[in-house]
Amino acid sequence: MPNRRISDDLKEAALRLEDRGRDTTKQILKIVQFSKSTLVRARRRKLLTGRVAKAVAHGRGRPRTLAEQDADYLVRLAKHKPTTFLDEYHERLDRYRFLPASLATIHQTFIRARMSLKQVQKMASERSPLNRANYSRRISIYPPDSLLTKSQKMTVLMLASSADQRSGLVSSAHSHSFANGALPE
Question: Nearest to residue 85, comparing CAs of 126, 136, 129?
Answer without folding.
Answer: 126
